[in-house]
């Protein structure tokens, strides 16, 4: 049976020591989250993830969800009780607006909780996870009446939220949406159409489900300019705001998926369902994007979460499984064989994953803090700069953490050999669950295009220049520090490759957009490598200064981090050169053939 | 519903034009396989794969195998009829020894059939696939009596074979085997023990199943020096050699696996089952390795096979799915959107897979032909050189074609977005099925160690030197050919990286074996990149000379190959530098930590 221990000490080290979290204590919400309270919350979060959510992960995968003939859906055994515990503890309220029952704490805390919960049980985490995105969209774009009606219940978790974008013929290209909304005299709309791949679309965890639906108002312009966003409750609300009669929306089928079996992925039929407009007519995509940006960081964290739990179980197996002897001579001569962790190739895999996990977590926190600053600072310039960084890093994190996170679950599975392929060890579930994160909330190819096509050129490249300046300044700061040269050199090299690639796009992609598309995925990964390399250098700097100051019983723990980081610099960073080489070849070869040559 | 078209034209082009298959016509069996007959056989093979095996792939995955309480196992619907058709057409007899009912054709033909069948239905292909390995072991190591008893039935397909190595506590390290064999007065043995992960361990496709079992004879030395190989029929044979009473072997459970659901993966209980020794006492591993080397090439081909079928379905989807517009302006202005194949990032994925598939197929055929030469040439030196190359390339193919083949199924799945994640499109099955090929028949880490630890240093590096000489001579041959410079340059660079890495091992791994283990997987992939790069350069040379001679209606088809190859050189070969950089960092960082730091 797989197990999970939330990496609370690692998280606290990153927040307190590496990212100097207390520097933000002047911001609203941060003052309430003192280091002591922070630690207390994370330890509680760990308990919820480890003791409540994780034990339901394997059984939830094996049972899946059940749809009865009347369209009602039952999640796996235990999910109802776990969801109730989630609500009772108020986990959904952490960073939500106090005006609607939230605690107003830094959103960074919600991101951390989300990592732990995703590691423990990704299918379960998606029920409240989608609600959080819906809450964000409604908070920013809804009328006060809609907010009063829905937010308190959704924040408390009494009602969950969904996102309804995809239709059978339309995924990435939302301009093709056909679901119709007919205006009614009372200001509401009647929605009709079919949506697919709707996560948590139907279930009995809550007394109501609030669907956020993209549809086209009758007579709206064609394409993306005619899409509006609606809120459509499963049960219409009575005069007191309580769930009443069923609205015209129902689950037509459950999808048969590769993984996340514990989450109900539904085909939803809208048959004159009553909905209410969120934001302006025909401006639905803008409102939906709020929800998606929120969701994208959440999905990035799922990639990290699956990578972390897969690592933990692979490492435990490698320390336990006796098989063969070390090439340098027996390490456990009293036993029939050595544990397989004596083998360099096993350590290579483990270090590859671990050196990713720690840097990815750092980059998530770095980005989440920028997000908090961008929403909470009272200084316009500070907000703008933080927003730039958050916007730049969101597609990088979504694409890289889910691509590499998935690859890591595959590598971790490999450590167990044949046992990794069968269900009872849980490793193959991590692979199947992690796979979806590369696809939903904008497939990773779309993230790469968002990075290269939108985020990079926005405001004359202001965001990327600001990132380069920050890393450059840090490199200047550690220049000449002998103990950090193993970090400074590869990071300098990686940054140069990233700058060269950026320059290449500036020179070659304006006139010929295909050159941007041809290098976009490589650029996203190059960016991720440098971003995580930057995090490792920051971690190393912190570790070295703490060791110099005397670290007591933390010494081995800190020194190990230098080894993980050194591995990253030696073995992962060399990839930046290959990415640059690929980007520089441009689109000519790729576009040379007619479609029928494929 | 997924589909499959066997790449017969590609195979014929490689055999006839690139690898000059007719040069071997003097070898036994080759004279019977004229180009006309070869094509006729491949077209029939394609029909069997496309029309009989492929239609059962998705349904076989969804139904899986069923074990009744009495231990009997039923494969998915249609497998019995398909297996009967396989036997009726004599597909198992292709390259088998004519003395026992085989056709004696080149084994290369069986390898090609195996690719097509693996693409069409990997779970089905494993039933006859394991029989072929068992036949090889028995042919080389069995007594004439055992051969007469078992080979004709197994070659005809009336009986299938299995390989029983793994036990719950022992996989890679076969020295830990506990299954016991007690000698009996009649020369037989009674076997008792438990074996796990036994593919095709029990089923009702045939009237008998012949288990090849590793066990320890009572009183045998500890470790690998005390392992013997036995043949244990499911039904004991009566005086006429027909299946009689059940022997003491039964299926205790079916494993719940990530994929290959159509194949019965069994836990097998041996309870005083009667078996017969194959080869010498305590020399069982040697006999089993014959079987495994055969099997490893077969598994490599599974990796290629899944990559090919995943490619075909992703390419078809990309040409069909309308979504968004080309960045360079609408390509299908009369439709609601362009097919997604207009996007460079979609083409990047497709070309990545296709440029691998064609080169991997070439390298498989190149190696398979060496295998045929090593068994059939009457010149000792020729045999030895071919055997060197076959031995060197087998772990490379097994490791690289299954690692990259799997990664390709994941990339292909990505093209379909959410549709790739649900069962009905079949893409997620390719991922789940392909995953096992990285694990069984020696996990890929073991292949890398076999390459670096055994194949590289064997006979003073004779095999690798011979490979370098062959590639070097080819580069000399195309030197100065302007049209081929885009191939010659990256291949030269890649070969240099490979040679530097080889030299690094010679200088650093003798004294410190961990340095070999630390770089083994990177070296295996570096080797594969150069091997496939060599194949692309050979293909390009052939294409250019055919185009120069006038290629008629084949012109576009041939020119497209130059584009796939150019993509490989531009985008895939840059990886060689990163591998070399990683190898050169050695084992120090990897081995720096105690086990509990993981």
Automatic annotation (TrEMBL), chains A, B:
Keyword Chaperone: no
Cofactor: FAD
Domain named Acyl-CoA dehydrogenase/oxidase N-terminal: residues: 40-157
Keyword Flavoprotein: yes
Location of the Acyl-CoA dehydrogenase/oxidase C-terminal domain: 282-451
Residue span(s) of domain Acyl-CoA oxidase/dehydrogenase middle: 163-271
SUPFAM superfamilies (alphabetical): Acyl-CoA dehydrogenase C-terminal domain-like, Acyl-CoA dehydrogenase NM domain-like
Keywords, alphabetical: FAD, Flavoprotein, Oxidoreductase
Sequence ranges assigned to domain Acetyl-CoA dehydrogenase-like C-terminal in this UniProt record: 467-594
Family: Belongs to the acyl-CoA dehydrogenase family.
PANTHER family to which the protein is assigned, alphabetical: ACYL-COA DEHYDROGENASE (PTHR42803), BROAD-SPECIFICITY LINEAR ACYL-COA DEHYDROGENASE FADE5 (PTHR42803:SF1)
Protein name: Acyl-CoA dehydrogenase C-terminal domain-containing protein
Originating organism: Roseibium algae
């Amino acid at each position: 049976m797989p197990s999970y221990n939330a990496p609370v000490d690692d998280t606290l080290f990153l927040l307190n020591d590496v990212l100097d979290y207390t520097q933000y204590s002047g911001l609203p919400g941060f003052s309430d989250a003192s280091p002591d309270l922070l630690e207390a919350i994370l330890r509680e979060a760990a308990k919820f993830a480890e003791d409540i959510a994780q034990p339901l992960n394997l059984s939830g995968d094996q049972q899946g969800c059940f749809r009865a003939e009347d369209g009602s859906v039952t999640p796996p055994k235990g999910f109802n009780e776990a969801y109730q515990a989630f609500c009772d503890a108020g986990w959904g309220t952490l960073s939500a607006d106090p005006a609607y029952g939230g605690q107003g704490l830094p959103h960074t805390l919600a991101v951390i909780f989300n990592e732990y919960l995703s590691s423990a049980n990704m299918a379960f985490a998606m029920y409240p996870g989608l609600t959080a995105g819906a809450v964000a969209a409604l908070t920013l774009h809804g009328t006060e009446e809609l907010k009063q009606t829905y937010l308190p219940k959704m924040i408390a978790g009494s009602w969950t939220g969904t996102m309804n974008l995809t239709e059978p013929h339309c995924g990435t290209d939302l301009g093709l949406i056909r679901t119709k909304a007919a205006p009614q005299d009372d200001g509401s709309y009647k929605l009709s159409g079919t949506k697919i791949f709707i996560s948590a679309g139907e279930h009995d965890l809550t007394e109501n489900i609030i669907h956020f639906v993209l549809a086209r108002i009758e007579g709206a312009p064609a394409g993306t300019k005619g899409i509006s966003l609606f809120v459509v409750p499963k049960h219409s609300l009575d005069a007191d705001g309580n769930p009443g009669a069923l609205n015209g929306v129902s689950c037509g089928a459950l999808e048969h998926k590769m993984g996340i079996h514990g989450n109900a992925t539904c085909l939803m039929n809208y048959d004159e369902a009553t909905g209410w407009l969120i934001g302006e007519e025909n401006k639905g995509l803008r409102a939906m994007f709020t929800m998606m940006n929120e969701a994208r960081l959440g999905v990035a964290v799922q990639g990290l979460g699956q990578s972390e739990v897969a690592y933990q179980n692979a490492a435990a197996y490698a320390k336990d499984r006796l098989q063969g002897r070390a090439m340098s001579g027996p390490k456990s001569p009293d036993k029939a064989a050595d544990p397989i962790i004596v083998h360099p190739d096993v350590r290579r895999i483990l270090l590859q994953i671990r050196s990713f996990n720690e840097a990815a977590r750092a980059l998530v926190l770095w980005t989440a803090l920028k997000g908090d600053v961008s929403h909470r600072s009272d200084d316009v310039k500070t907000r703008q700069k933080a927003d730039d960084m958050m916007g730049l890093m969101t597609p990088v994190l979504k694409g890289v953490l889910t691509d590499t996170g998935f690859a890591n679950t595959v590598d971790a599975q490999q450590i167990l050999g044949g046992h990794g392929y069968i269900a009872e060890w849980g490793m193959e579930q991590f692979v199947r669950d992690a796979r979806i994160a590369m696809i939903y909330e904008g497939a990773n190819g779309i993230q790469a295009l968002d990075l290269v096509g939108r985020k990079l050129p926005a405001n004359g490249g202001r965001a990327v220049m600001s990132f380069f300046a920050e890393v450059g300044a840090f490199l200047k700061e550690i220049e000449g520090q002998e103990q950090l040269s193993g970090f400074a050199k590869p990071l300098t090299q990686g940054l140069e490759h990233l700058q060269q690639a950026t320059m290449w796009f500036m020179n070659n992609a304006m006139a010929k957009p295909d050159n941007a598309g041809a290098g976009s995925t490589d650029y996203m990964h190059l960016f991720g490598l440098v971003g995580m390399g930057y995090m490792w250098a920051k971690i190393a700097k912190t570790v070295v200064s703490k060791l110099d100051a005397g670290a007591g019983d933390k010494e081995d723990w800190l020194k190990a981090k230098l080894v993980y980081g050194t591995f990253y610099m030696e073995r992962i960073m060399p990839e930046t050169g290959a990415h640059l080489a690929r980007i520089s070849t441009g689109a000519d070869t790729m576009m040379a053939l007619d479609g029928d040559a494929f």
